[in-house]
Amino acid sequence: MVIINLFNVDIFRQRLRSGMVTDADAEFGTVHVFHFHMGIHELFIFAVQLIRLHSCWSLEHLTASMKITKLTTYRIAPRWMLLKIDTDAGIVGWGEPIIEGRARTVEMAVQEMQPYLIGQDPARINDLWHAMYRGGFYRGGSILMSAIAGIDQALWDIKGKVHGVPVYQLLGGLVRDRMKTYSWVGGDRPSDVIAGITSLRNAGFDTFKLNGTEELGMIDSAMAIDAAVERIAEIRAAFGSTIEFGIDFHGRVSAPMAKVLLRELEPYRPLFVEEPVLAEQAEYYPRLANSTSIPLAAGERMYSRFDFKNVFHQGGLSIVQPDLSHAGGITECCKIAAMAEAYEIALAPHCPLGPIALAACLQVDFVSHNAVLQEQSIGIHYNQGAELLDYVINREDFKITNGYIAPFPKPGLGVEIDEERVIAASLNPPDWRNPLWRHADGSVAEW
Ligand SMILES: O=C(O)C(=O)C[C@@H](O)[C@H](O)CO
Ligand SMILES: [Mg+2]
């Protein structure tokens, strides 16, 4: 006999709807079902889950006829979009399809993918992925690959919940017991980085990332270079080698200036320099790599293994940073990770986004031998109006200890989303856009 006050009825209902019903829930629900005044729909879902949990039926039997019934998108603060995929078995999956600043465009792209999905078996992730990628003739790019990414994440979430295991178990199991993470400092116009690092060190982090410059002209002055270098010199002077940090050139640095800046930064030994030039100038990666010992990183603006394959072939990158919400999701990023490993390139997924995106990254990190570092957005300068865990019920699973995070224990992506809070937040969707920067002469500057 389960004592009712051990369970929160609302949490039980949320778990019921999200397909996360546990044995204890099932026992509790059975005993107290008449206290809940459940509707017929909830009773049906509960019955399906009870059968699943306690049935001699094969799992395949239960889910063989499963069908995708609905896709719902929620644009929420700070600049995220969450996708919920419903099935006729009452098991739901969550994804995070988003291009920051183009949320409505991606939302429409997700809706336009529905004909490939509604009525289909959610277990057939590979087939659905190729249908979405190849079915529309035109393919790739940030919008379509972000739409596919979020849908793919949600399908893996469903698959894990059906089998009652985390996604990484379905991908062959853990290659590590914990994953190293890093934190942003300094914001868009890097400032107060010493204070930022100091407070994050007190929280246990020892690895950071900051923007390397503000606006920088195609050919800029020694003074502009000196300003960028002095900031890095201050960090090394303040913390020595007790911390590590990556420097994000953020695409703001032209190819001519990248060579100059990399040379001046050599003495301070950054862990890596990210997006040393824009992805459309990727042919400079091997040339720049020949001019510096600093590991070069890129990938947040590459959207499939077909974008990455040329970069792998030509060389120059030591670290690739595919974004799990931009590069086709778990299915595609696992392939990118494996390709990178063959070229002795490390994996450090890009993730300045929300909890589902981070969970998807971690599912790939925990099965990829070459995963070395994971970006996460706690305290990032973009999180105005909501923080990483504001929509998460199982916040304890996101605990970061001395910069490391443990594998999520729950089925699927391992995130229990507070759906009521998401729905409420979506009633007042943000209209986040990145700023349009301009040089002193009025021309557009890379942000
Ligand atoms: O996290 C990073 O490495 C970034 O470069 C941040 C950038 O990707 C913004 O999210 C774009 O909106
Ligand atoms: Mg970046």
TrEMBL record:
Mg(2+) binds at D248, E274, E300. The record marks D323 as: Increases basicity of active site His. Binds 1 Mg(2+) ion per subunit. Pathway: Carbohydrate acid metabolism; D-galactonate degradation; D-glyceraldehyde 3-phosphate and pyruvate from D-galactonate: step 1/3. The active site is at H250, H350. It catalyses: D-galactonate = 2-dehydro-3-deoxy-D-galactonate + H2O. Keywords: Lyase, Magnesium, Metal-binding. Belongs to the mandelate racemase/muconate lactonizing enzyme family. GalD subfamily. The record marks E375 as: Transition state stabilizer. PROSITE patterns: MR_MLE_1, MR_MLE_2. It comes from the Bacteria. Its cofactor is Mg(2+). Reaction proceeds via an anti dehydration. It is an enzyme of class 4 (lyase). This is D-galactonate dehydratase. GO terms for molecular function: galactonate dehydratase activity; magnesium ion binding. Gene3D superfamilies: Enolase-like C-terminal domain (3.20.20.120), Enolase-like, N-terminal domain (3.30.390.10). GO terms for biological process: amino acid catabolic process; D-galactonate catabolic process. The lineage of its organism: Bacteria, Pseudomonadati, Pseudomonadota, Betaproteobacteria, Burkholderiales. Residues 190-295 form the Mandelate racemase/muconate lactonizing enzyme C-terminal domain. The keyword Lyase applies. HAMAP family: Galacton_dehydrat. Catalyzes the dehydration of D-galactonate to 2-keto-3-deoxy-D-galactonate. Its EC number is 4.2.1.6. SMART domains: MR_MLE.
